[in-house]
Amino acid sequence: MSFRRFLLKRTLIAALLTLIAVSVIFATLRMLPADPFSGLVASGSLTPDEVDQIRAMYGLDEPIYVQYVKYIQNLFTFQFGISLTQQRPVGEIIIPALVNTMVLLLPALVATAIVSSLAGMYAGWNRGSWFEQSSIVVTTVFRATPIFVTGILFLIIFSYGLGWLPAFGMRSPLANPDGYLETYLSVDFLKHYLLPFAATVLFYSGDFLMLARNSVVERMGSEFLMLHRAKGLSEMEQLGRAGRNSLLPLVTYFALRTGMLFQGVITLEVVFAWPGIGRALVQAILNQDYPTVQAAVFIMALAVIIMNLTADVAYAKLDPTVEAGDV
Amino acid sequence: MSLLEVDDVKITYRMPGDDVHAVNNVSFSIDEGDNYGLVGESGCGKSTIAKSVLGLLDDNGDVRSGSIRFDGRELRDLSERDWMSVRWEDIAYIPQSAMDSLDPVMSVGAQIRQAIRKHRDVSKAKADERVAEVFEMVGLDPTRTGDYPHQFSGGMRQRVTIAMALALDPDLIIADEPTTGLDVIVQDKILNKLMELQEELGSSLLLITHDVGVVAETCDEVSVLYGGKVMEQGDTDRVFRNPTNPYTMGLKNAFPEVDEFDEQAISIPGSLPDLTEEPTSCVFENRCPFATEECGASHPDLVAANEQLSACHHVDEADEMRDQAKDPETWGIDVRNEVERTGGVGDVILETDGLEKWFKQPQGILDDFRGKEPDYVKAVNSVDLTVHEGEIVGVAGESGCGKSTLAEVIAALQDRTGGEITIDATPIDDLLAENTKEFRSQVQFIFQDPFDSLNPRQRVRAAVSEPLKIQGHDPETIDRRVRQTVEDVGLKPADKYLDQLPAQLSGGERQRVAIAQALVLEPTLLICDEPASMLDVSLKANILNILREMADDRDIGIVYISHDLASLTQIADRLAVMYLGRIAEMGATEDVVRTPKHPYTASLLAASPRTDPDADRKRVLLPGEPPNPVNLPTGCNFAPRCPKAGEQCYRGDPERSECTEGDHEAACYFPVEDVETELLERYIEAREDDVEEVLEGGMTP
Amino acid sequence: MSSGYFLDPETVIERLRSQGGRAWRTLRFVLRDNSAKLGFVIIVTFGFMGIFGPMLAPYHPIEDTLQQGGSMMRLQPPGGKAVLGTTSFGKDILSQFLAGARPTLIVGLFGGVGTGVVGFLVGLTSGYFGGRVDEFLMRLTDLTFALPFLPMALVILSFVTPSIWIITAVLVTFLWKMPARVIRSEVMTVKERTFVKSARARGAGHLRTMFLHVAPNVLGIGFLYTAYAVGWSIVAGASLAFLGFGDPTTTSWGRMLEQVFRSGAIRVAWWWVLPPAIGIGAVTTGVFLVGRAFEEIVNPDLQTEQE
């Protein structure tokens, strides 16, 4: 199978998958028994007539299939509509939240992928060493403990206990930055950044470390490393080759993890009150704000599907022995 | 002074529980420019010695005592840093399996270049020049240095490792089973290349192999190893012409020559000695037919016998032992009466008519849509084969020729895509119409790999009784037949084996269990796909004997598939030779072997190495490798490689009826009359302008 | 039923018995690892608490409000009547901690086992049959990968009243894909091994081949991922509870953390935070430590064999 054909097939599957995913999301949301307005009627703030008007405004009075078609159309043109509870375009709510999440998680993911993978390769090469044993146990602890628990423990130690770092949000309440650059480039931001960043790095470190360590261990007895050694390569050069041969699963895993970036640490955002997409989503669900929920979930699904596709392509490209069709 | 002197070396592996004494007091030396062979079966310590010379022992392996001197320098004292300069610069290494030994994610050129630049301070361009040079030396296309290992076929990969070994002109090359796993014709070409280059460059060679034929043809001197001990040592010709040690005798006789029909191969009974303790008796004592009390008391020293050295307490009786060792009965094997081997005695049990198995190649959806005919790999292409009751029909061929596919199609493990199969006069479709019970009770299969053909979680009893359970027999019958069959295949007493797991059995025992699984249903047709190829030579004959007995006593028809011509000629009544999905030649084994008609058969037969040091054999330098099975050219498949091919061969595909002599048929327009002049010499001439590797596209599956 | 699909009970019983022995040997082997030993002790302690915790609790975790001198004991540090202190509603933290182990255990155990079983069967079927079955099942796993687990679970739990069993079901719905993928690729390797072909040649049908020849050889990986799934389920269950989507009628460790966090008492009441936080962290770590040691045994690639 040619690479182009492989890419085409994969992309088609990804597109189809996205369609099914958003349909499932649509169906699930429509199963919600009530919408926020019924509550308002009950409390007497709106008359039933007014509610009908508002429902018409949001297109909620149309037959379900019309709603469905419109919903699909809008999603794929990235028109997410108006928030039910905040009366402003969903895009305005979601995009800054996405950026905030990305600013927190992407550097954390990249940092841990590089550091933990290298540490893992070293650990695998020195199998049975003190370094291997302790690095595995330490990262397993952080990998296993739910990230919000780590976050809470960090909070009560470093914020409430020692008072070193702020506990809440991304900037101090007094700061009033304008635009992304001003928000992110400040010492105040850095102070807020440190704890959630550290928690994320530690949380992800375990998987990369074990994956790198296992791949190197798998290759340690291999014939080709023996030949490298017979050629006179030094220990570190041999480890380099073992590492290169272990790269594939790591890159694939990195791509998959990146895809799950937005849904990765919702609870952590809640703990640190980080104004990211996860926190926005939890609030929207609590407020039954469908358009926001739809948009956020759609973006999360899309990110996974796109990064899965990237992982497949990276796999086919990185390993000369893999024919595109084998993936 | 010798180049390499190994003196009284002991090597042990630390294992949980016990140490394994892998090598015990081994000494030998290699002179400059010499070829030295270490020969022995698996577990004899030969690879361990090779690794110790390169300082590549696994972490749990130690050289306990003795010395290894290279060019007068003690290698045991080297630090890892010193080792790095000795490796490859002075001693290079050709690994056992080129398949796994090349770094899969690095181009082959870069791997060789890495070796050069590690030791020489040269520019990348300069190193690349050398890479191209060694590529050409080993007969590889120098434009392919940028390719990755998986883009080469097995034989070509082995050439890459040879090229790598030559890159720095080392004084000593250690080759660890360099041709194991390769087809005979490829093996012949590789060995020829290796010898040629070594002659040219004057480096010494330490060749490690289990194949007596390979050593006999390539090495000046040899050590025969068993259980970590040198059993016999000396000039190769002398050692194999007149062995003075019972083990050498057994090993040599276990390798039948292709054209020896009258001599039955022997197998050495018993199994390897326990090496967790240093040997206190002769290591071969428990398997040696000549052992006496003295042999149980101590392992004998190497003493002069004729002009070689032999470790045997009875070395002065060598001549008598040698005579007796030729008789299989000495080794506890029942001699079967040759008269019984007539073949074609009973009714026809299997008949295939134009059998086809074509694998469709994937193609674009658009092409499907346009109705374009897809490409096929014709793994089995109109094969007609007949097997009678009590007859063993051998199918020979190189890897990729379709012989295993043929076996699996006949056994209904794969669907056929065309033609007919008839079992005992019933079409296979009728047998399989309801369910597989009926068919499976008639046709059974024995697989190649005894180490993988038994479920690791199933005990022998469960494994052998499963086919009967599926057939729905009652527990009593099952128990009786399981015991009977297990003993029939030589696992006596059955009680000793029934509750064992596969991991507790040796390779030979496992293969017997697999055979018992097949025989317990009392099938009428048995299909064997290389049943002995993964076993040590000294065990092969056993398996062959069991099969022969089944054919003779139970009138089972047997299809025996193998790449190993010597074992085929030992066992088969009739022989079919396959090339690229077709049967090229078929006839009574003796006719095919003595007077091969198809040029391919003749080449294949001529490529088997001879254990007899006096045999003077021309190497088979058949150009190229079997072509890519997709898109075969019209005409005879073999024509592009055939020195006798005429225009006719490119136009029409000859039928097997083209050349007949009684039952002996060959699909060839211009059958061979004289192998030497018509083929072997022509191959050598053709090599002058050898462009073979350029023609070859990709690897063969 | 045609013969190929026939599994005789005798064989099955014999298999199960030998599997039991195997499990015991494996456990002894796993526990040679020190960190696994620690993990095992944690799991056993946790299991004990899950079963007997509510009985050991000195007070009822929700109904009893501790009084001292006529007033509610709000946010009392450890000591006196409340060994581990009290919540801002005057509840005994030790009792909540002891009682909270059970829902965590149930969600972990059933979510994990359910995930393991469903994933194992899907992976086995998918890998064994290949072709269209495989294509369909694998696209299904892709789909569950694409749908974000926590948000979807939150949405679902916002229109049904969360109970332990619904939460468990939701977890299984979203987690089965992980073992399914791993088992599938493992099955695809085992399927190519000679003994599987051999079983077919001896006349075994698909069911028999699948369950008696393929399955036992991937069972180790299956158990490994079941163990991991127990860990994931505990994490997921606790996360849901922490976000306020736990079973409102029971006390779980996740819910304790939610309450301390939401009430703002987290700033001062470390004694309220630490027991559930350490409890969750210890249990999941214990599960993963044992799982990891087990992985060293079942993953054939991690075994470096000597000549």
From TrEMBL, chain A:
It is found in: Cell membrane. The keyword Membrane applies. Belongs to the binding-protein-dependent transport system permease family. GO terms for biological process: transmembrane transport. Signal peptide: none annotated. It comes from Halobellus salinus. GO terms for cellular component: plasma membrane. It comes from the Archaea. Pfam families: BPD_transp_1, BPD_transp_1_N. It is a multi-pass membrane protein. Keywords: Cell membrane, Membrane, Transmembrane, Transmembrane helix, Transport. This is Peptide ABC transporter permease. PANTHER family: DIPEPTIDE TRANSPORT SYSTEM PERMEASE PROTEIN DPPB-RELATED. Residues 98-311 form the ABC transmembrane type-1 domain. Its main location: membrane. The chain crosses the membrane at residues 12-32, 93-124, 136-162, 193-212, 250-273, 293-311. PROSITE patterns: ABC_TM1 (PS50928).
UniProtKB/TrEMBL annotation, chain B:
One of its GO terms (molecular function) is ATP binding. It is a peripheral membrane protein. Keywords: ATP-binding, Cell membrane, Membrane, Nucleotide-binding, Transport. InterPro entries: AAA+_ATPase, ABC_Ni/Peptide_Import, ABC_transporter-like_ATP-bd, ABC_transporter-like_CS, Oligopep_ABC_C, P-loop_NTPase. One of its GO terms (cellular component) is plasma membrane. One of its GO terms (biological process) is peptide transport. It holds the Pfam family oligo_HPY. It is found in: Cell membrane. CDD domains: ABC_NikE_OppD_transporters. Residues 4-252, 350-605 form the ABC transporter domain. It comes from the Archaea. NCBIfam families: oligo_HPY (TIGR01727), PRK11308.1 (NF008453). PANTHER family: DIPEPTIDE TRANSPORT ATP-BINDING PROTEIN DPPD (PTHR43297:SF2), OLIGOPEPTIDE TRANSPORT ATP-BINDING PROTEIN APPD (PTHR43297). This is Oligopeptide ABC transporter ATP-binding protein OppF. It comes from Halobellus salinus. The lineage of its organism: Archaea, Methanobacteriati, Methanobacteriota, Stenosarchaea group, Halobacteria. The gene is oppD.
TrEMBL record, chain C:
The keyword Isomerase does not apply. It is a multi-pass membrane protein. GO terms for biological process: transmembrane transport. Pfam families: BPD_transp_1 (PF00528), OppC_N (PF12911). GO terms for cellular component: plasma membrane. It is found in: Cell membrane. Belongs to the binding-protein-dependent transport system permease family. This is Peptide ABC transporter permease.
